[in-house]
Amino acid sequence: MGSTITSTSIIFLLTGVPGLEAFHTWISIPFCFLYVTALLGNSLILFAIITQPSLHEPMYYFLSMLSTTGLGLSISTLVTMLGIFWFNVREISFNACLSQMFFIKFFTVMESSVLLYMAFDRFMAISNPLRYAIILTDSRIAQIGVASVIRGILMLTPMVALLIRLSYCYSHVLHHSYCYHPDVMKLSCTDTRINSAVGLTAMFPTVGVGSVLLLLSYVLIIRTVLSIASPEERKKIFSTCVSHIVAVAIDYIPLISLSFVHRFGKQAPACVHTMIANTYLLIPPVTNPIIYSVKTKICRAVIKILHSKET
């Protein structure tokens, strides 16, 4: 056991893919591809929504929020992950670790919240189309966005700030290529029950309650759609919801997989934990632009923008 060190002077060591350190350069190739795809895809969607008046609708405003969270998540992990794979730079200061942890948690919470808002948007558009534009005005959507940011900051700041009070006298080696809240807590040699309680309290309203409300929204959407007499109308409405259902699945499946591996997969190789943890943060920002471009007007808008740049 090492001596206790004040939190602000700690240097943590991040981990790449355990057992495959010799192949980090090769492993970085698919990760680079994913990062470029996420950054370009989400940036194009944001640019299209901002510049194309035909996309100034509630559904696309929420999609722009989702793209912002995708960019935020990608940028939050890019430096440390590629730093490890390319240059074997594993050191990260305590303050930098807390900052990265906050932004990862913040954008993850925002992503879950936006998916819920998008489900509510679809429910309102299907069940009450006459009042849809009255309820979801531009100013109300802006208020929802600002309220979500404030709520995220208020919820997550105590969870991250409480790590400062802990003493770290064991190993300073983290098990991921980014700072993960439970990972940092495990390195403490002081009582972390308060931290665990605050962390659970912070995440439960979004991940727990949010998941239930999301499921309830889609139950109500399906019930409303099935009550529509015309099969053509049903097919059309379901097709508009498919992209969102797929996006929700892609967002939650890696999160659930990571939780199960951490809880029940202690015998699994360390590289499995690492790959699932990296997938959990990278796959949604990569796939969301692709999914939403296929079934919406985004694809046509992006093609129009790219064509205008060529001419």
UniProtKB/TrEMBL annotation:
The keyword Cell membrane applies. Residues 41-292 form the G-protein coupled receptors family 1 profile domain. GO terms for molecular function: G protein-coupled receptor activity; olfactory receptor activity. InterPro entries: GPCR_Rhodpsn, GPCR_Rhodpsn_7TM, Olfact_rcpt, OR51/52/56-like. It is a multi-pass membrane protein. It is found in: Cell membrane; Membrane. This is Olfactory receptor. One of its GO terms (cellular component) is plasma membrane. It comes from Theropithecus gelada (Gelada baboon). Belongs to the G-protein coupled receptor 1 family. It holds the Pfam family 7tm_4. Keywords: Cell membrane, G-protein coupled receptor, Membrane, Olfaction, Receptor, Sensory transduction, Transducer, Transmembrane, Transmembrane helix. One of its GO terms (biological process) is cellular response to lipid. The chain crosses the membrane at residues 32-50, 62-89, 101-120, 141-164, 202-225, 237-261. The keyword Amino-acid biosynthesis does not apply.
